[in-house]
Sequence to fold (835 residues):
Amino acid sequence: MPRIRFRLNGVETDVDADLDRSLLDILRGPLRMTGPHFGCGANECGACNVIVGDRAVAACDTPLWSVADKDITTIEGLGTEHEPHPLQRAFIAEQALQCGYCVPGILMSAAALLMRNPKPTGEDVRASLDRNLCRCGSHNRMVRAVLRAAAEIEAR
Amino acid sequence: MSVSPGKVEIGQGIVTALSQIAADELDVDIGRVQMVRASTAGSPNEGVTSGSLSVQQSGRAVRQACAEIRQIFLAAASDRLGVGIDALDIKDGTISGPGNIRTSYWELADDVSLDRDATPGAVSKLSTQRTLAGNSVQRLDIPDKVFAHPRFIHDCALPAMLHGRVLRSEMSAAKLTGMPEDGARAVAGLVAIVRDGNFAGVVSETEDGAEAALKALRKSAAWSSGETLPDEDRLAEWLQAQPSEPTVIDNKTASEAGEKKRTIRRQYTRPYLAHASIAPSCAMAQWTGDRIHVWTHSQGVYLLRADLALVLKLPVENITVEHMEGAGCYGHNAADDVALDAVLLAKAAAGRPVRVQWSREDEMSHAPFGAAMAIEIEADLDAQDEIVGWRHSIWSNGHAARPGRAAQPALLAATELAEPFPRTISTNPPQANGGGADRNSVPLYDFPSWQIESHRLLTMPIRTSALRTLGAQGNVFAIESFLDELANERGEDPVDFRLRHLRDSRAQDVIRSVAKRANWKPDKQTGCGYGIGFARYKNTGAYCAVVAEVEGAEDINVKRLTIAVDVGEAINPDGVINQIEGGAIQATSWVLKERVRFDRQRITSSTWTAYPILRFSEVPEVQVELIQRPDMEPVGAGEAAHGPVTAAIANAVFDALGVRVRNLPITRDRLIAAMELTT
Fold:
């Protein structure tokens, strides 16, 4: 099996696997990271979004070979209960979800946005989340939460 | 404190609302309340978590039981402390009396047995004595979901777990005529290939291996052609031409019949709608001898168990069905089907647990759909164009084919076995339970006479079952659109027209509130329109009135939804608002975008591209005003907004463009078709 190396949530990671397999398969399978969710397997819903470098990508549509030596951040690397990312704090404060299955992907899209654009407008947020689907209808709360997180980061 | 309800969390926040109620009645901090996930191993059988009934049913049961438990403990404390119950007070579980005497629930726990039936006498607190219920509290499940702690069934793994996948034809009800296994056998990690009639699947050591083996099987499998599906462009004609069972839902005869001068008749339709959960359905199952344990995101663990018993020909005692959270389901999706798939595949796993997950395509094509509906309404008008007669007729498949309710199973794989069970033709719950296709078909308006009838189809080439609101979305769309047409005909303001025909003051209040908040009716601007919609869900549940603001010419954009809602006592007000906002946005998606597509052999809308839903950039602003009635019975909020939002958008489109779209969804094509009818 070919071997590939990348940094996963800051940790050097080696994987032996078919390089054409999707990053999502590897994350959820051998690496046991269940934060990125399978939704469609076709880069159509965003539930599996992770950050590669500084961009949010659908892990289901990202072949393993393409992440060699890259930095990958999943929801597991975003923050913890003890050290939450401002987005996580904001999603709780705004109660910005119903079922929450799409949330890991949405948080990663939003985190990538805030890396690129720390002062987004509501429209910026909607545009950056437009490829993420939410079926429960929590969109507006999520947009408010992202803006709240941006304001918190700015106030630091 | 453990509370074991029979209702399940499906993203609606019920676990939090029930915790609030329990903590309030028992006077303990909400953090002490542990909610037990429903399981047939020990939970009460509260049927199915559906119909916006969980707060109403389970909430009442929890409140009643906790009120009695409080009394039982107060009596025990009174014995121990030697003072009367009236002198005792409870704070966060500590029971204290005069002179600093005290005990607690936990100290008394060994003396008190709660292994007894509840009795009806206990009196719960007055609304003014409650400190949690009625106040917004943060949902208890949200931190796990934001920090991605494995909570969804999809993210949980059992020791030694295998992975299964099921092979299904994209053709409807096709027969498996051949399935060479060589390709699948060559895939690393394969444990078993399972075949029973037209049911086939694979079991593998890994999820990846299961996918690869399935792919190989799919390549080699041969299928007969299936059954013919209707023409998707002539749905109303098809619905009305099918053999059906007619039922008179309600009849009202005027004491003094007004004189009919003319009759206006309109037909409204809605398409099949997909539940389209973001997560494909998933289940795990494990056999131990002739006993089976199932982990599922089904809405009804006991109902699923009953159907599994029918398929497996086992006593229910041999089957344990345990709930785990899934993504939002919005009704009866494939959750139950995949559970049977897992059970059947696990037979070949030699006692190891098997996890099965459907594909996106199967989820969008093989799960039950919300039923398409054709609705005709006729109004008899007198010389002043007042309504003197009203007839409402529905043609639709039944809206319910949930498991556990019939002598035969309703699970998909049951129809695929070598000894198949017949396909369950969907039925409708009785009006007393809110009805099915006929839900919300009886007007809340005070018309002098009416006749309401429903034609339930006896054929079902496209599988239907419960989708949020059942028939209410279609019926409210039809009634509220038609009322708008009639008001327009008279040149009367649609808000005034509605208020004039309503006697129920709570109904009037939501309409007046929403009209006030939306500054009804804002001045006309080109390309902009405003519309109103109203309903009381099931005619017994939540009152909801909506004003929609839309803009656009070819593609409609819903800019804003202003909503007033009355759910009686709102246990968790922010939870209610969250549900209403979500329902409103989902309904906007249904109205503007959604329609299950099919050709004559197969469902073709099996991807998100082929079945688009509303995106972030298309979501309207939603403002919700909650009318609090702490002394009224609490009712659910999850389905209250769909019908009124649908109608409000359609009415706003008419206001903006002068075009009445009577066939959902309101897409560019439908707008053009409606314009051609208008001109």
Observations:
- The domain at 373-399+436-678 of chain B is CATH 3.30.365.10 (Aldehyde Oxidoreductase; domain 4).
- Chain B has a mean pLDDT of 96.
- The longest strand of chain B covers residues 387-396.
